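Good morning C.,

I know you're traveling, so I'll keep this short. The sequence:
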Amino acid sequence: MKTAYTSFIITAMFVGLVACSIRKSEPITGKVVDVSNPNIKNGETLYMNFCHKCHPMGEGGLGPAVNTMNVPKFVKRFQVRHGLGVMPYFKKDQITRQDLRDISGYMSALKKLKKT
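The tokens, ready to paste straight into the viewer:
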């Protein structure tokens, strides 16, 4: 029992530290991406509704920076569906499969913008 409690405390501390990541770049200002593509526009809208409060513009906030993570998109989509630590999970009736693809597309557009 004591070992399980200790493991829980250590895990909670680790998740807390990871969630408080440091901003790795300057915030984006002005028009972010070309929203003439309806999927990118939808991704931007969904991101602002569901993700922005914890990952502002993909930067670290309450949650870690997601625009600097070098992980495959399917890992990020898995995270959205299942959550981990302080991140909530989102069911398919909240964010559809296509919506999740649109959010991924928006995040890719943000990443490309940061490189220029």
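Safe travels,
E.
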